[in-house]
C-alpha cells in the first residue's frame, strides 16, 4: 500500500520466495548474513537450494559463478560492502567477463545503515558495479519496485547487481499498476521548472522536496531511475529539454554513480545546469539513519536548497 | 584402461606446441605450461568424458584451469582434440584471436570457465559440482591450481566449502613446481606442507610424480573412489619440464623464447 514503510531487503526476501516457487533453477547463496539480507526466507522454504558459504565473499561469488555454468540462476547475497567491495574482482573477472547469469544482491547499501558506521556503509557499490562492462545495476526505490526488479533479474540472462536497503522506506508505487523493466525509468511526477532524477531511498526524499517546492509555486518533474545501467537516456534527455535544469539524488558517492551517469548522458545530447545530492568525496559515520541522511544533505530541505540554486 | 602411450605422445606434442605458440606470439608463460602438460594430456586423452563435436554436452566432465596463465597447454590439448583447427594456435594472444592470453569461456570452444586472476577457480569448480548434485549428474570437475596460486586466500575459502558440502566429485591438482615469479615458493612466502594443509581442511590428498602419466592416472582413479571428501592430487613437477634451459628457472615463468631458443627446445622435445 502506498505510504507503507517497508525495507527493500524485506521486499527482496519475499519476492525471491514468491518467484522461486515456479523456477526450480533459482538457487540462493549467502555469506553468513542470511538474516540480514533476508535470504533466510528462501533458506527456510527451499533448504536444498540454499548454500551458506560462511564469511567468505570471494568464494560466495565464485561458487555462484560455477552454479551458473550448470544452468542455475544464482542469487548471491551479502552486504553491499562485501559484495561490490571485497568481491569486486570475482564479480568482474569470474562473473561479468563470462557474462554468467549471476545476480549479486548487496544489502545495507548507503549511509542509512546507521550506527555500524562507515566500515559498513557502502556508498560506492553502484559506482563500482556500473563500471563493469555489461553489468546491469539496479537500485530500487521501494518495496514494489524491488519486487519487480527481482522478477526482472530472474528473467534476464546475464549478470545483475541489485542494491537492497536496510531501513524501511515508504512505498511509492501502486502495486496494481507498476511494471518494472530493466533500463526503463519512470516519470513519477510531471513538472515544468526542474527535473529531479533519483533512485533508491532518495526517491522518497525527492518527492518530499518537490512537495515543499510546489507550495512555493515551483514545479519539479521527478524521474525514477532504478536501473543506473543501462541508463534510460531518452527519458532523462526529454525531461531536461523541457525543464532545462537537473538535480540528481542518490544515496552514494556522486563520483561515478547516478549523478555522473546522468551528467554524461546530458553532456552529449542536452547539456543543462546540474546539481548533485549524494556523498561528495567523504565517508559516512555512526549515527541514526535519519540524522545521517540529513547531515549529508540527503533531505527534503537540501533538495529545496539545491533546486533553488538552479532556479 | 587408458592408452598411456598415446597420453605420453600427446603430452610431448603439447610441449612442442607450447614452445611454438609462445615463441610465435613472443608472449606467454612457458614454465608453468610445460610443468602441467602431462596432467592436461592425461585429462584430455584419457580421463575426461568430453566431446569436441558437442562442447556443451550436459554430462561432460569439466576442467577448470585455475592457473589460467598455463593456458597454452590447454589450447594445445583442445586443438589436438579437435575443438578448433590447429592453425588457431598461431593466433595466440593476437588481436581478435579466439585464444586469449588467459582462458576466456566466451571465446574458446572447450573452455568452460574464464580464469587467469589467480585463486578463483576452485570456488567455481565447487559451484559446478553443487550444480551437478542438484541435477543428479555424476560428472567430475577437475581443477588445476598452481603452487604459488594457493597463496591466495580464496583457495582456502573454497577448500573449506568443498569439504563442508562433501564435494567428492571435485578433484583438485596442485602443480607443485616450487617456483613463482619472484623466485622459489619457499623463499617468497614459504608455503610448504600442502598435503597437511589440505588434509586439515578435510580433503583426501594424494601425491604423485606429475610427469609420470601412469601415476597421475592411478591417482585420479583413487580420487574418484573417494566418498564424501573432495580430493587433491599434488603433482610433483619441474617448471619448464622438457626444455633443459627452462627447467627449474623462475625466469621462464612469463618469458617468450627467441627463434633460436624455440629451435633448440623443439630439438630437445623430438620423439
What's the arrangement of secondary structure elements?
The complex is a heterodimer of chains A (311) and B (271).
Chain A: E1 5-7, H1 8-20, E2 26-30, H2 34-37, H3 40-45, E3 50-52, H4 57-69, E4 73-79, H5 80-86, H6 88-96, E5 103-107, H7 125-130, E6 136-138, H8 143-155, E7 160-163, E8 168-170, E9 186-189, E10 194-198, H9 202-215, E11 220-224, E12 227-229, H10 233-243, E13 246-253, H11 258-269, E14 274-279, H12 289-295, H13 300-310
Parallel strand pairs in A: 2-3, 2-4, 4-5, 5-7, 6-7, 10-11, 10-13, 13-14
Antiparallel strand pairs in A: 1-8, 6-12, 9-11
Chain B: H1 4-25, H2 30-35, H3 37-47, E1 62-65, H4 71-81, H5 121-135, E2 141-146, H6 153-164, E3 170-176, E4 179-180, E5 183-184, H7 185-188, H8 194-200, E6 204-209, H9 213-224, E7 231-236, H10 259-268
Parallel strand pairs in B: 1-2, 2-3, 3-7, 6-7
Antiparallel strand pairs in B: 4-5
Helix pairs in contact in B: 1-3, 1-4, 1-10, 3-4, 3-9, 5-6
Explain the overall architecture.
The complex is a heterodimer of chains A (311) and B (271). Chain A has helices at 8-20, 34-37, 40-45, 57-69, 80-86, 88-96, 125-130, 143-155, 202-215, 233-243, 258-269, 289-295, 300-310; strands spanning 5-7, 26-30, 50-52, 73-79, 103-107, 136-138, 160-163, 168-170, 186-189, 194-198, 220-224, 227-229, 246-253, 274-279. The relative contact order of chain A is 0.13. In chain A, the strands form three sheets. In chain A, strands 3-2-4-5-7-6-12 form a seven-stranded mixed sheet, with helices on both faces. Chain A has two domains: 5-170, Thiamin diphosphate (ThDP)-binding fold, Pyr/PP domains (Rossmann fold), CATH 3.40.50; 186-310, Rossmann fold, CATH 3.40.50. Chain A is an alpha/beta fold. The longest helix of chain A has 14 residues, at 202-215. Chain A is globular. In chain B, a hairpin with a 2-residue loop joins β4 (179-180) and β5 (183-184). Chain B has ten helices and seven strands. Chain B has a single domain (4-270), classed as 3-Layer(aba) Sandwich (Rossmann fold), CATH 3.40.50.970. Chain B has 271 residues and is an alpha/beta fold. The longest helix of chain B has 22 residues, at 4-25.
